[in-house]
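I had to read the description of the data format several times before I understood it. For illustration, here is how one protein appears when written out as sequence plus structure tokens:
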Amino acid sequence: MDSQDLLEHLAELAAQLDISVRRTDLGGSGGSLVSLRGRQILFIDTLADPQDQLERIIPSFARLPNLDQIYIIPELRQLLDQYS
């Protein structure tokens, strides 16, 4: 599975967790998971390549609680487990 597919699965997982997903130009930084006014938002930088996006987002996403209670495709689970 390539980085773009993994990124799409991550965005779907975020939606399942009631995390807003915003795809926007962030200057190539990759993206971030942030908390804003009590809501979590996943920013995906449209200027960064998918591998960079994953490398920036996965570490903070892996710290979310209760991920072990949700089905996550094995490839994405493996990435998340590297940082949990």
Helices lie at 3-16, 50-62, 74-81. Residues 3-81 form one domain. The beta strands are 20-24, 31-36, 39-45. The mean pLDDT is 92.
